[in-house]
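Hey, quick one: can you model this chain's 3D structure?
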Amino acid sequence: MVRGALERRWRPDWPADLARTLGPLCRGAGDPTMEVGPDGVWRATRTPDGPATVHYARQGPDVVIRAWGPGAARELDEAPTVLGVDDDPSGFAADAHPVMRDAHRRFGAGWRVPRTGRVLEALVPAVLEQRVTGLEARRSWRALVLAAGEPAPGGPQRGGPPLHLPPTPAAWAGIPSWEWHAAGVDPGRAATAVRVARRAEAIERLSRRPADEAAAALTAIPGVGAWTAAEVAVRAWGDRDAVSFGDYHLARNLVHALTGRRDGTDDDLAALLAPWAGQRARAVRMLELHCGPMPRRGPRAAITDHRAW
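Sure thing. Here's the predicted structure for all 309 residues.
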């Protein structure tokens, strides 16, 4: 176990909101690979140089990044990119709608589109989220990471349980059917996760291609649709225009936020997002942060126990 940390101090030219920028990378409060807390953000990741544990914290106008493990130096080098230094918020039409104006006033200064460059780490959990509730997907992710991953590098720097690394591509591909079953993952999603893990080397290279080309290549893989590709795009390659059309809640929540209607569709959402073309991911995130989910009046999506098949 590597105990010595490497450290970097970096001053962004915006008041970087670490929790809200990196928060979408975290798959719920029980995610074994991440922790977003009062002392900053902890993240375990696999780099081309090896695994790393990274801690991001604000100290005044600076961001202090500490990292452990064989991939530590790479993560320090890439920290500004992860935190959105390549994202350009200029030209965003914050005044195109009164709700957006208020949302942008609250969150626009500190939030940037992250870019991790880790495609498989965004893709597998997105596959697990297909056609199920968020609660189900988070439970599955946690169970599989703890079963097939391993403790992340680093010394006793955290008070809680050690972070775990996401499984390697080989480990994802080698998970037996009964373990997918025990984690509540149906055979279709399990097959897709194994399929993308077996193509991990080519999939990781997608982060170096233009966003539209990368999305087209990803959706050419059986089991990976436009929704899944958008979920990956806004995390792994910093696509500031990606929108997760087809999401169970997104259209209804955002159409409600902008119009008060409770019956919004993807077509409605696409029309409403037109003023922010080119930066629709920013618009979506501002509205999600500002408005939250639409108040519920009907039944929630039923939780399916896939362990029963």
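One thing worth noting: The two ends are 40 Å apart (CA to CA).
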